[in-house]
Design goal:
The protein is α/β, with parallel strands linked by helices. It has helices spanning 2-23, 27-30, 46-57, 81-89, 116-124, 154-168, 193-201, 210-213, 220-223, 260-264, 343-364, and strands at 38-42, 67-73, 95-100, 128-131, 187-191, 206-207, 249-251, 253-255, 275-277, 282-283, 290-296, 302-307, 313-316. The longest helix is centred in the first third of the chain and has 22 residues, at 2-23.
């Protein structure tokens, strides 16, 4: 009898967990409130949720009563049960999750597909979307063979590319009417991979490896000899195995002198303070719907883009969302001979101001 009772209790606990688990991933059907305002977060990992929450709690990003819906494709490599637990255990009532299922192929991501009706719901019921960093996009999505890309999560790219295509349209399918034609003030913000996704979704292509294709360098020992303004990730960890070496690289940007950064970010200088990036790929060809608003110091790598038609659509090749930029955390080295410093120390007061100005511009997309 006791064994039977234990089995029933175990079964009830499992059913309760499964029900909570399922409903927590189906927010549009189980918890959406039409009187509230929502922002979508692509790839809502624990780390990305934590970063957005930090920016809000530290008054770097101002969202008022706006809430967040993390959206993702069921086939992505990340275990989103971690995000479910993180939200629940920290009682983060303003963060929710939406899991999507269906079938993506290279042939259907830039047209009406299994997800189009869900994409329309996501668009109609949100104010905008934030896209985060991540691994390389499969070159087949922009019509090239894979020469130097390291593709580890192709299904994530299918999902994000297709949604951004539905929002903005692209030259792959010029007859498609983008959703933003219905609401031009919808915002799309992309960091690192996020900006690259915005480029590829609208018909752009990618440089698959910056050192090889731009600087004609294959040997890591030669790459690290480049000055730091030409290093977009840290290659020293490929030479020395040390936990004290950072993955990213701090470098300056050349900014548009009379455009986005001066007028909208309110940055008067044509050169940025040090920003952090960690990527080996770069935008190659852009659809003519984009303006370039930032370059690497040698004008070889596009570092920022803004849509010509839709005022709240822009992306950065660097990372203004990292917590480590705004407070001292771990001290790390760039090279084995480099002094130990935190990211906060490396970007400096002017760097913190620059990044906060970017978040103020993002805050304005909610007005």
């Amino acid at each position: 009898m006791k064994g039977k009772l234990f089995f029933i209790q175990l079964l009830l606990a499992f059913c309760l967990f499964f029900t909570k688990n399922a409903s927590s991933q189906n927010f549009f059907n189980s918890g959406y409130d039409p009187t509230k305002t929502y922002i979508l977060l692509a790839h809502p990992t624990v780390e990305n949720i934590e970063r957005i929450n930090y920016l809000i709690e530290n008054q770097i990003l101002f969202v008022g009563e706006t809430e967040f819906i993390g959206v993702y494709f069921y086939a992505e490599r990340y275990d989103y049960n971690q995000s479910i637990r993180f939200i629940r255990e920290n009682e983060m009532e303003k963060f929710h999750l939406q899991r999507l299922t269906g079938t993506f192929t290279l042939e259907n991501i830039f047209e009406e597909n299994d997800f189009s009706s869900n994409f329309n719901v996501m668009f109609e019921q949100s104010k905008g979307i934030i896209l985060f960093g991540g691994p390389d996009i499969q070159p087949e999505a922009y019509g090239e063979e894979n020469t130097y890309s390291q593709v580890t999560d192709p299904d994530r790219h299918f999902f994000e590319l297709s949604y951004i295509f539905h929002l903005l349209g692209g030259k792959q399918n010029p007859d498609f009417v983008p959703y933003l034609e219905r609401n031009p003030r919808y915002f799309i913000i992309g960091f690192c991979l996020g900006m690259q996704t915005m480029n590829v979704a609208t018909g752009g292509t990618m440089v698959q490896d910056i050192p090889i294709e731009i600087y004609n360098l294959k040997d890591t020992t030669e790459i690290v000899k480049l000055d730091q303004d030409r290093l977009h990730k840290n290659y020293w960890p490929e030479i020395f195995d040390s936990k004290q070496l950072m993955n990213g690289s701090f470098h300056r940007l050349k900014l548009d002198e009379d455009g986005f950064f001066r007028k909208e970010v309110k940055w008067k200088s044509s050169v940025s303070p040090p920003v952090l990036s960690s990527h080996h790929q770069a935008v190659e060809n852009l659809n003519d719907c984009w303006d370039v608003v930032a370059w690497s110091m040698d004008n070889k790598v596009i570092e920022g883009i803004k849509h010509k038609k839709y005022p709240h659509v822009f992306g950065f090749q660097f990372h203004p969302e990292l917590i480590e930029l705004y407070e001292n955390t771990d001290s790390l080295r760039f090279s084995p001979s480099d002094p130990l410093q935190t990211y906060h120390q490396r970007t400096g007061k002017q760097g913190v101001k620059f990044h906060k100005n970017i978040w103020r511009r993002i805050t304005k997309t909610l007005d």
